[in-house]
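To illustrate the input format used throughout this study, we show a single complete record. The first block contains the structure-token representation of the backbone; no residue identities are included at this stage. The design step must infer an amino acid for every position from geometry alone.
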């Protein structure tokens, strides 16, 4: 059975019919060609599929597309503002991107965290990464990446 769905993805309205069993992750990847959110476990365990739904990080493999109605989704492809650029640069600069499979989900989680809390403690950063699996970095570099981004974002702007 199919149902009509309407959502805003990276600032663009998307409307169409989707099967009632289609997840947001599959809709993004298969119907919209947005493959930045990765399909790791497809069961809510790894965080690789994380996107922002109305500003909050969610596992898109656990969200049914038919539950969305005018909701706002941001994927890694849509993060192109100054703050996001600094976050991404910080991941690269600190070596928090290695194989990169977890990186889109981690970067989205960082963006979600900083949206709510522009000056997080180490503990708050670690809490934001609960549910994100990274096989490569040992997580210390990821925390360092967020701290670097926070430092740069809080620096007074030069004229
Ligand atoms: S693919 Fe969604 S949590 Fe792993
Ligand atoms: S950088 Fe490889 S899984 Fe995290």
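Output of the design step:
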């Amino acid at each position: 059975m199919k149902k009509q769905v309407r959502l805003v993805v990276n600032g663009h309205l998307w409307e169409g019919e989707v099967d009632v069993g289609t997840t947001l992750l599959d809709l993004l990847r298969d119907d919209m060609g947005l493959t930045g959110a990765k399909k790791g476990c497809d069961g809510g365990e790894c965080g690789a599929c994380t996107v922002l739904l109305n500003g909050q990080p969610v596992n898109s493999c656990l969200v049914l597309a038919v539950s969305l109605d005018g909701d706002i989704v941001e994927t890694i492809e849509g993060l192109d503002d100054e703050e996001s650029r600094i976050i991404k640069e910080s991941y690269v600069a600190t070596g928090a991107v290695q194989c990169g499979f977890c990186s889109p989900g981690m970067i989205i989680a960082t963006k979600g965290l900083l949206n709510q809390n522009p000056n997080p403690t180490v503990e708050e950063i670690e809490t934001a990464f609960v549910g994100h699996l990274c096989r490569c970095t040992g997580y210390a570099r990821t925390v360092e990446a967020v701290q670097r981004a926070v430092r740069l974002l809080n620096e007074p702007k030069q004229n």
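Structural context for interpreting the output: The longest helix spans residues 140-154. The longest strand covers residues 2-9.
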